[in-house]
Amino acid sequence: MDQHQERVDRIARAISQLKALLIFILVAITLVPIILLYGDDIMKGIDNELQARRQTVLITEELPKEVFWTAPDPGSVKDVSLQAQIAYGKELIAHTAKYLGPKGIVMQISNGMNCQNCHLDAGTKVFGNNYGAVSSTYPKFRARSGTSENIYKRVNDCFERSLNGKGLDTLSREMQAIKAYITFLGSDVPKGSVPNGTGLKQLAYLDRAANPENGKAIYNAKCVTCHQADGQGQMAADGLEYTYPPLWGPHSYNDGAGLYRISTFAKYARFNMPLGVSHSSPLLTEDEAWDVAAFVNSQSRPHIKVPRDWPDISKKPVDHPFGPYGDPFTEKQHKYGPFKHILEEQKKSMTTAQK
Ligand code: HEC
Ligand code: HEC
After folding, report:
1. Which one of 181, 246, 321, 341 is CB 3.0 to 4.6 Å from 335, fit for a cystine?
2. Nearest bound ligand to CA 263?
3. Residue 246 — pLDDT band, cuts 50, 70, 90?
4. CATH of 74-185 among 1.10.760.10, 3.90.1150.10, 1.10.10.10, 2.40.50.100
């Protein structure tokens, strides 16, 4: 390369450096007054922006996630004899028939079902009819008996109706163990409170009557493999407990049981059946749950005489299928619905009574 070319290149480089410097100075000259005039505002703007972003993060983090009741750990009980009593109570809930069923090794006072058949995972499953709110809410007034009921009375209600059997003596080792277990399950729950996820999940009423015919088709499609075509369930090989409990017939719950009301059955089934579903993953639609409830509760089952139930007839739940009622609706409508009309009528008569 000759010298001349080199000089030309150097000059070109110098010019381009000068250009860059000029641009820089120009920009600086324009920016300095802007910064001097508006600098504070700009910084405030940036600050606000950062703060807003921080807040969005906080807000999304603090969005209340739905929290559900969970059972405490029986291993946390320090007192050894109490721990053993709680463990026996849990065993009786999970395997009632083995101890207290028709071939029970302690007593024969019930129909072969287990409490756990309806109070899933020994009464600990979220919305699986668990016992999370029992200790915090009993003794409580129940309109069915018209009296204040303690835990013993409530447990024996299920023995006599859901297990179509006899109640336990309050002082028996078995009743004391069941009470200890249920009380333990609620030991973290403040008196009077009902934590989210306890008991059964609510279900809206349909605008129509529940339809047993539709329910039969649903039963045959979604329940029959386990509960069987005749609804009698299936015994385990040992002949002591059911692998699949009966839904009707002589070994099922009687017509005074909670599940015999179709709203209770529908709430239980929608969020727990077929076995394995939960409240967050239901398989039955709401309509299907009501219809299958209507079908199952139209089959034959044991009858219990409970003439003292609902001493105040105006307190009967809308779907209690036995009259007399304080309203003009039939037993049939009280059994299958539509319930909305009955509820509206009840509301009206309540407001007239208040006037
Ligand atoms: C056939 C089903 C079924 C069986 C079996 C059953 N229960 Fe129940 N139990 C229910 C229903 C339904 C309710 C009422 C749920 C509702 O109305 O929210 C209930 C309610 C209860 C309650 C009151 C719960 C509360 O929060 O108020 C207790 C305690 C109870 N059962 C104990 C037992 C015991 C102990 C056994 C076994 C001896 C048992 N149950 C067996 C269906 C059953
Ligand atoms: C995969 C088998 C299976 C299927 C399918 C199934 N269930 Fe169940 N069901 C069970 C078992 C097992 C239990 C008892 C749970 C336990 O003891 O832990 C039960 C319990 C019940 C109970 C309470 C106990 C009783 O016998 O009254 C009802 C009610 C019930 N099922 C209704 C239904 C309905 C309605 C359907 C169809 C929509 C259905 N189940 C489908 C296995 C099944």
Report:
1. 321
2. 1
3. very high
4. 1.10.760.10
